Amino acid sequence: MTESGTDNGERHITIGVITDPVAMPVLLGRQLAQDLPRVLSEHVDSSREWSVQTREERLPPSDSRHTAMMELAATEMGERGWDIAVCITDLPMRVGKQAIMGDVNNGRRVVVVSLPAFGAVRLQRRVLAVVAQLIADVYRPGTPEEGTEQHARRRLPVLNRRFQRQTPDQDGVDSRIASRWGSPQLLLGMVRANRPWRLVWGLTGPLVGAFAFSAFYLLNSTVWEMATTLSSWRMILTVIGALAVMTGWLVVYHHLWEPVRERPRGEREEAVLFNASTVLTLGTGVAFMYIGLCLVNLTASLVLLPSELLQSYVTGSVGVSTYLLITLLVTSAATVAGAIGSGFESEDSVRNAAFSLRERERREAFREKHEQRQRAAESSGESSRG
What we know:
Blueprint: E1 12-19, H1 23-43, E2 49-56, H2 67-80, E3 84-89, E4 94-95, E5 98-105, E6 110-114, H3 123-139, H4 149-153, E7 163-166, E8 175-179, H5 183-194, H6 199-202, H7 204-218, H8 221-229, H9 232-253, H10 265-304, H11 307-311, H12 320-338, H13 347-354, H14 357-385
Parallel strand pairs: 1-2, 1-3, 3-6
Antiparallel strand pairs: 4-5, 5-6, 5-8, 7-8
Helix pairs in contact: 1-3, 5-10, 7-10, 7-12, 8-12, 9-10, 9-12, 10-12
């Protein structure tokens, strides 16, 4: 393909978008099919007729050159007659501490986009801009040196200045867009991909336990008295402590923490990223669970506890704040007690509720790699002793 048109001289250019068969990549693929032709016509070449076809396909994990994804995309291009292929995956891509949003191989005419590096908000606009820029880099021949005037001219107006557009010195990658925020934004994107709100209905044991203890605490006059006498900072610490206990219990009891020190130096950063993602995902999920339980308990307290009854146990007048304080203390106590209910959940069920399918696959591969290395080291030690 050249800037003057496709290899066969046709004015029509077809973009094939291959997405992982999970919620967010599929949604973004459909959005690209609607918006990408307009953006490419406005900012790349208005003389061409651009169209987008989407396909859901399990994108394989790849090396730093995305070899497996590139090969799959090249096969799809040949079978379906696409001019350019775009792979959209939930698998994080990193080079050192740099979070990669997208890479392109001009020879293969394939773009690979990794969603976690985009963070947790405004994904549709950001992905559209990055994909359009990388397609423009494929469409226009040659790869200008980074920092040159030609390199700057080729930057599309839709691409946010916070995104770093680079020409990496790496085989198989001709152009790259990376996040200036690096690991923090990648971490937020990994948490978003895990969809932590699913934890609310994914873990029935803790939820049932928390509801059961809520009923007990809500009808306990001692709890009413404590709630109205605790200072504000004590109540805040109580809420934070309840969330921390539930999150910590899930991580420790179900062995979700990845050991860091025993890993090779090159894998330690990835293990730290896994652990941070685990804590944030579970913490966010537990917070959603807490809010839902809090709303249920507030409704129950308004129905079951008349102000005349509470007035005989608490000092001062009974108002809305009284019910809120009782609800917060009841929910916090029930959350801590509900952590016991997570013991009835299997480790697999907790992982299924906490992590996306691709994240579970990646963690399992990471763990298997470590175990294989340990077995190899043990075998080598036994051979040397023999």
